Structures are given as C-alpha cells and as structure tokens.
Amino acid sequence: MFVTDLPKQPPLFISYLKVGELLYYSLILFILEAWIYGIQLHDAVLNRGKIAILFWLSCFLFSFLHIFLVLADGWSRFQNYKRAKDQFFVHGFNRRICDTYIVSKCQRIAATVAANELGYKDQIDNYYKQKGVKWYHFVPYFMVNDPLFLFRKKFWNRTFLEPSYQSRFDYHAIQIKITQ
Hints:
Blueprint: H1 12-19, H2 21-47, H3 50-91, H4 95-100, H5 105-117, H6 121-130, H7 141-145, H8 153-160, H9 171-179
Helix pairs in contact: 2-3, 3-5, 5-6
C-alpha cells in the first residue's frame, strides 16, 4: 500500500500516553490510595489492634498491587496500538481489524489512537457506534459474559501479558518521504 497523505505522526511517547490515558488516571488514583492506606496501616500498627491492621493491610495491598496491574495493562494496550496501526497501514480501514479490538474500552482506545494517526478516526468511531458501543462501556464485554474470567488464562495473557510487538514500519520516516 502506498500512502500519499499520512497525517503528522506524534512522538511514540505521546501515543503511549494517549493509548493508556484512562489507565494512567487510575494509576494516579491507586498511587494516592496506596499512600493513604499506607499511612492508615502505619497508624494501625502503632495504635490499633489486629483487626484494624488486617483491614488497612488488605486495603494497602489491593491498591499497591493495582499499580503494577495498571502498568502491565498499559503496556499491553500499547502493544495492541502498534499492531493495530500496522494492520490499518497495510489494509486500510477494515472492520475485521476493529472487531479484534472491540472487546474492552482500553483496546478500543488503542485501536482508535492507531486509526486516528493514520486518518481513519471518523471511520472507526462510526463503526463502533454502529456496533452499539457507547462511551460509557468501560467494563469489558467478556467480564459481563463470563463472571469467572479471572480464572481464564486468556484473560491474564490478553490483559496483562500481551507479547511485545515490534512495529513493521517507521511512520516518521515514511511521513518525511511523503512530504519531500
């Protein structure tokens, strides 16, 4: 495929932040929660009984663990973004590519950022709208359909352990060639 009008490509770090924007907002909240719960835990260890210590320890561990889960999820969504961008670049806007990333809000964001950087934002937004996806669909569809998702290997692999993907194209170099 020869692209004649590749939109201006943002730095990769900016794309990384855009892809995980919602995740990184929650990361800030989990860091704040862990800090607050850590203070409460420290106070409970010094001044309270075992039940208070167990309560604040469980709250602290919940928030602290989620810091790493959010970082792993952000990394996985960035891998989705790079793969989707390559797929859109090679095949153009394609509904089958969109369907691959429709499962969760974060995956849809990854695909939307990739599509936007290639000039397909309106098409992907319209497609997801036609499929009934609403802006408030934050909970991944598989969680609603399968309450035991936490016990599925596919969930852990696809959410937190997405393999590293090396982009096949240097979009900045392509953009420079096109503008010359």
